[in-house]
User: What shape does this take?
Amino acid sequence: MFMSLNSLMRWWGQRDDESGDGEGDRPPRAIEDVLVTPEIAPQEPWLTSVERAGIPRTLTYPSTTLARLLDQTADRFGDAPAVAYQNVRWTYAELLARVNRVAAGLATLGVRKGDHVLMTLPNCPEFVSCFFAIQKLGAVVVNAGPLIGSDDLHELIKLARPRVAIGLDLQAGVLTRAARECGVEHFVWTSLQSYQTLIKRVGYRFKLWHSKDSKRHAEGNGDGKPHATKGKVHASSHGHAHKAQHVALHDLTARCAARPPTVAPDPGDVAVLQPTGGTTGTLKLAELTHRSLLANCTQVATWMNVRIGQERFLSVLPMFHVYGLNLCLVAAVYSAGTMVLMTRYETHSALDLIRREGVTIFPLVPAICDALSNLLEEEGGATDGRPLLPTMRLCISGAAPLPPASGERFMRLTGSDAIEGYGLTEASPVTHAGLPGDPRPATIGLPMPDTRVRVIDPETGDDVRPGETGE
Assistant: This one.
C-alpha cells in the first residue's frame, strides 16, 4: 500500500528486547473555519455504492493545523486516555502539557517556524510528544526510520538540511556519523530504558555500552535518561566549523513550563517532509501540509465511521512512515481515541494488548493478519462460533495485497472487518479502501470521498471501459 512489505517487516521483525463521552458517530467539525471541496461529478460509477454504505460523496474538511487539532481534542477530552505504552498512561491534558514543554525546550535550541527537525524515533510516547511539539513551533518534521542505513540517512539529511535531530540513544553513533558535514546544530537524545523490564533494561544498557559512539553521546544513567554531552566539531556544508550540541530530551524539558508557544502556522504550510522512493527508487522528500494530512485523516475517519472519544487504536505500524503516521497518530487524535503504542510487532504481545486494552481499530499489513490468525487457531479457535476479539471492529490492511483466504480467515476468527486499502505517500496517503461490511477481497476498494480516479490504457493513456483491464 504505502511501503514495501520487506521494509515494514525489517522493522517489526526485531525482538522487543532490541530496542470520552461518545458524541455521535461522525467526527466533529473543527473549531476554525472549514474548507469545503467541490463535489465530484455525479456520473462517477462508484458513488452509488459509497452512498449506500452511508459515506457522503463529499466532505467538509478542517482548515486548521495539526497543533491546533491537539489543542481542540485536549480542550474537549482532557481526561480521556491518549497514550498507553508499557507502564505509561497519558490523558490528553497530560499529553498536551508534555507537548508544550517539548516545544518550549526546542525553542531554546533556536527552532523557529519553517525550520526542519529530523526525527529518527520508533513508536513510543516521545515520538508523539516530539511530533506535535515541532508542529506547535511551525517547524517541519523530517521523518526517518531508526533502522535506516547510515548512507541513506546521510543522503536524507543532505536533502532536508535539518537544524535539529531527535534520535534514540541506541542509534546515536549512526545518526551522528550520518550527519557529519550537514550542518546539524543540535542532537536531542531520548531513551527507552525506563519502559523496559529489569532484564530487558540490562540488555539495553549492554547495547549502549557496546556502542562506543552511543556511550559517548547518550550514555544512560540509572533511570534510563541520557546525559547531555558536548559534541565534536564538525564542518558544515558551507565549510565553516561549528559545534553540534548534544542534550537529553529529559534535561531539555525539565525546567520548561507547559505553556503553548505563540507561533501560528498556516494550514497550507508544510508539516512533514516524508521520504519516499516513488516508482524510481531514488530518495525524494514529499511535502505534506497540515491541510493535506488533516483532509486525508477526515476521509479515513469518515470511512471507518469512528466514534468520537471511544476508539482505541493499536498503533504498531511505524509512525515514521506516512501510513502509520496518519492512521495510528493523526486519526487517533482527530477522533479523541487512545493510541495503544507498540515499538515493534510481536504476535503474542499484540494479541495481549488487543484483549487487555480493548482495541477497536487496528491498521495492519497482511503478514499480521496471518500471524494473528495462526495464533488464534493455536489457542483453539472459536469453538462456539463467537468472535475471539469482540472489541475489535475494524482492521484496514495495506502495504501488500491481502489474499482473500487470509482476509476471510481473519474475519471469521476475530469477528472484525478486514478491509484492504491503497494509497501513496504524496496523497497523505490513503486514496482507496474497501467498504466496511463489504470488503470485496482481492480489490483495492473504492475511492475516498472527493477523490477522482481514472483507469487508463497504459499504452494510449485513454480511459478503458468498465470491465476492461487498465491502470
Summary: The radius of gyration is 22 Å.
